[in-house]
């Protein structure tokens, strides 16, 4: 298969590329690096990306920024970070990708454990991740041409504990290599509308 990985230079993205590269042709896409660049918050940039790479069999997104901070200090502008980037950015990818995937292709997005297990200062992340899970379940029943869509919902990564560990006391971390297995299941399997929890 020909697979585009958006966010290929991030921690999860690198693990996904490593997981799939031995079996498939991988196109690595980043915000400022990789074979191609894209700004997922800009629908024109997303359309331009697909115009460049042409028809593909699968797209995997491990991209998206969130805002972490106390509820009392949240402003619409701060909340917009996650809504515009991780939520609408990935939805932009899905909306455009559906028209550029080969028949039977697949879309895999990324949410996270905070959709179900809130933490302090994680209101933006919980909202965005829950919305992504809902989007995928709904989109799955409308996609045409046998195109599938799933979302991987991981716990905190072992590799990210130095930065995010203090937010996730009591959570069991998972290595990126284990999380990458869920992307393999989504891309190379047959299910659709699934939320693959790696907790």
UniProtKB/TrEMBL annotation:
Coiled coil: none
Keywords: Oxidoreductase
Pfam families tied to this protein: adh_short_C2
Family: Belongs to the short-chain dehydrogenases/reductases (SDR) family.
Protein name in the entry: Short chain dehydrogenase
InterPro entries: NAD(P)-bd_dom_sf, SDR_DHRS6-like, SDR_fam
SUPFAM superfamilies (alphabetical): NAD(P)-binding Rossmann-fold domains (SSF51735)
């Amino acid at each position: 298969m020909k697979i585009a990985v958006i966010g290929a230079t991030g921690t999860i993205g690198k693990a996904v590329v490593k997981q799939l590269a031995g079996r498939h042709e991988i196109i690595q896409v980043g915000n400022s690096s990789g074979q191609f660049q894209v700004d997922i918050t800009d629908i024109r940039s997303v359309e331009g990306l697909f115009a460049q790479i042409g028809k593909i069999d699968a797209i995997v997104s491990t991209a998206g920024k969130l805002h972490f901070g106390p509820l009392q200090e949240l402003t619409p502008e701060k909340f917009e970070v996650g809504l515009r980037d991780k939520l609408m950015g990935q939805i932009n990818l899905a909306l455009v990708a559906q028209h550029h995937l080969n028949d039977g292709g697949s879309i895999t997005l990324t949410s996270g454990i905070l959709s179900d297990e809130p933490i302090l200062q994680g209101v933006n992340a919980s909202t965005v991740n829950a919305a992504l899970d809902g989007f995928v379940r709904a989109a799955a029943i409308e996609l045409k041409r046998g195109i599938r869509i799933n979302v991987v919902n991981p716990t905190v990564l072992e590799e990210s504990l130095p930065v995010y560990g203090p937010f996730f006391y009591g959570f069991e971390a998972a290595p990126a290599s284990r999380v990458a297995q869920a992307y393999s299941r989504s891309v190379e399997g047959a299910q659709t509308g699934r939320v693959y929890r790696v907790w």
